[in-house]
C-alpha cells in the first residue's frame, strides 16, 4: 500500500511539474506566486533559515513518531472517510485512547507542511488561522514561516484538550512564540477568533472533514477575510462529503482563484484577478 501511494505521488509530481510551466507564464502575480510556492516545494528549495526550522520541526516529528505514551483523544470530527458519524456524535465528541505515535500519523506530511510554509513565505499574511492543531506539526511549519517573514501570528484551534497541552509544549520546545492555541470545538470558538483577529489574511482548515461543517466554516469566515486572502482546505478528496464540500466552495462567487492539488485545495480572494480562474493538478 505504501509503495503504491509513493508511486501515485511521484506521478502526481510529474503532472505538477508539467502544469507549472503554464502557471509560471501567467500574467497575474498571484497565480505566478502559487506556482513559485509549488515549484519550491517540489524542489525542496530552502534558504538557510528555512533549513534550520525544517530540521528542528522534523526532529520534533521524529520524536513524536517514537513516543508511545498513551493519550486520550476527544475527536469532534468526521472520523474516517467511511465513518457515518451523526452531527450529534460529532458535537459530543468521540473519546478514545491512543498513543502520541499513532496520533502523529494525522499530521501533514513533510511535503504538504513545506507547501504551507512556502505559501506563507510567498504571500506574507499578517494574521493566520489554523483549524486542527493535532500535535502542532503543520502549525509549527506555518508559524516558522511567519517568524522568518518577521511579522505575523498564527492562531491554531484544537478540540482535544490533551493535544492542546502537548502542542503547547512542542511550540515552547522548538522556540516558536508567535502561536496562540485556542482550545475547544471550532463551532464554539471560530466566530470569536475571527472577530478578535479580523481582517484575516490566511486560513488553513484541517479538521472536522464533514461536508456540512466544512461549508459552514467557509461561509462563516468569508465576511472576515481581508481584500487579499488565502483559504486552504485539506483533504478535499478524502471522502464523498469532502468532495462535495470542495465543489460547493469553488463554485462560490467570492473565490477568484482556485488551485486544486487533489490532496489539498487553495482558494484566493483577490479582486485584482480578472475573471475567475480554476487550475487543477489531479
Ligand atoms: C488532521 S488533524 C490536524 C493535523 C495538523 N493540522 C497537522 O498537520 O499537524 C485534525 C485535528 O482537528 C481536530 N478537530 C477535528 N474536528 C474538530 C472540531 N470540530 N473542533 C475542534 N477540533 C477538531 C482533531 O482533534 C485533530 O487533532
N→C terminal distance: 19 Å
Q: Give the H and E element order.
A: HHHEHEHHEHEHEHEHEHEEE
Mean pLDDT: 96
Q: Strand pairing plus helix content: what structural class?
A: alpha/beta
What does this structure look like?
By secondary structure, this protein is α/β, with parallel strands linked by helices. The protein has 2 domains: 48-60 and 107-280, Vaccinia Virus protein VP39 (Rossmann fold, 3-Layer(aba) Sandwich), CATH 3.40.50; 67-103, no CATH class. The protein has helices spanning 2-23, 29-43, 48-65, 87-92, 100-103, 110-123, 137-149, 161-174, 186-197, 211-221, 240-250, and strands at residues 70-75, 94-99, 127-131, 153-158, 179-183, 200-205, 225-234, 257-260, 264-270, 277-280. The chain has an 8-stranded mixed β-sheet with strand order 5-4-3-6-7-9-8-10, with helices on both faces. It has a two-stranded antiparallel ribbon with strand order 1-2. Helix 10 (211-221) packs parallel to helix 11 (240-250). It is globular. The protein starts with a helix and ends with a strand. S-adenosylmethionine binds at residues 75-77, 106-108, 132, 134, 137-138, 158-160, 163, 185-186, 206-208.
What are the salient characteristics of this protein?
single chain, 282 residues, alpha/beta, Rossmann fold, eight-stranded mixed β-sheet, two-stranded antiparallel ribbon, binds S-adenosylmethionine
List the helices and strands and how they pair.
Blueprint: H1 2-23, H2 29-43, H3 48-65, E1 70-75, H4 87-92, E2 94-99, H5 100-103, H6 110-123, E3 127-131, H7 137-149, E4 153-158, H8 161-174, E5 179-183, H9 186-197, E6 200-205, H10 211-221, E7 225-234, H11 240-250, E8 257-260, E9 264-270, E10 277-280
Helix pairs in contact: 1-2, 2-6, 3-7, 6-7, 10-11
The chain binds S-adenosylmethionine.
The site of S-adenosylmethionine (SAM) has 19 residues, from helix 7.
